[in-house]
């Protein structure tokens, strides 16, 4: 088993308990998604105030909601097309909120350079989601590139808990640029491949 | 060896054009490289506006002493 696989398995134990609890009380997954974004806004406010540890703790709680909503939906058989749409839209709000919190902090500290780096990281983080969504309206799947939402969120938490947010912004920014480029290249290659070849 | 730059170039290309799933050894290597960058790069090199203290590596060194 890989190192990251092991961490995933360990984290799954408490999450499964929370999922079971939500299933038992039949909490609607769309409500869980909505609660997640509100808690993420609270985390963004803490980031803006420079309270990184508090922000990290709140991010953990918020992302439990983000993580479990889909699983609860499947367990209580409430999977819907609107649920998937709502989840994706709300995730973008959560992402943007965290970046804006940091932009506010760096701007308050008079650090225009990091305002720009964070703004660029935010732009490419959003473009990562957009390129995949747009690509998948043309081709079956476009799941290439490293820096997806779970990686971004975990990096935000690492940055918050270890007070290394600047390095995290560099990583998110650079790897998001690569991810967007990967998705553009992949979609171009897939669309150039004759359809009958893809089917084989 | 026919093309001595083939392997490093392939590694670089695979790092850039990422197609690996989570929980694979390639994913682990990438995660370790990212954590090394985040934790081992001195904050002053990046001009980190908020970093204070010695960070995780400092904590570990202090714990070991």
Give a verbal description of the structure:
The complex is a heterodimer of chains A (200) and B (65). By secondary structure, chain A is mainly α. Chain A has one domain (3-199): Four Helix Bundle (Hemerythrin (Met), subunit A) (Up-down Bundle). Helices cover 82% and strands 0% of the residues of chain A. Chain A contains eight helices and no strands. In chain A, helix 2 packs antiparallel against helix 3 (52-75) and helix 3 runs antiparallel to helix 4 (81-108). Chain A starts with a helix and ends with a helix. Chain B is mostly helical. Chain B has one domain (6-64). Helix content of chain B is 63%, strand content 0%. Chain B is built from four helices and no strands. Chain B has helices at 6-16, 25-40, 43-46, 55-64. Chains A and B meet through helix 1, helix 6 and helix 7 of A and helix 2 of B.
What's the short version?
Chain A has helices spanning 3-24, 29-48, 52-75, 81-108, 112-135, 149-162, 165-192, 195-199. Chain A is mostly helical. In chain A, helix 1 packs across helix 3 (52-75), helix 2 runs antiparallel to helix 3 (52-75) and helix 3 runs antiparallel to helix 4.
Helix fraction of chain A by DSSP (H/I, runs of at least 4): over 70%
Provide the β-strand percentage band of chain A: under 5%
What is the average of the pLDDT values of chain A?
Answer: 94
- Average of the residue pLDDT scores of chain B: 87
Through-space gap between termini of chain B: 47 Å
Q: What is the number of helices of chain B?
A: 4
Q: Could you state the order of secondary-structure elements of chain B as H and E? A: HHHH
**CA-based shape of chain B:** elongated
CATH topology name of chain A, in short, is Four Helix Bundle (Hemerythrin (Met), subunit A)
Query: Structural class of the secondary elements of chain B?
Result: mainly alpha
Pair with the biggest interface: A-B, 37 and 30 residues
Tell me the Rg of chain B in angstroms.
Answer: 17 Å
Helical/strand content category of chain A: mainly alpha
N-to-C span of chain A: 33 Å
Number of separate structural domains of chain A: 1
Strand content of the residues of chain B, in percent?
A: under 5%
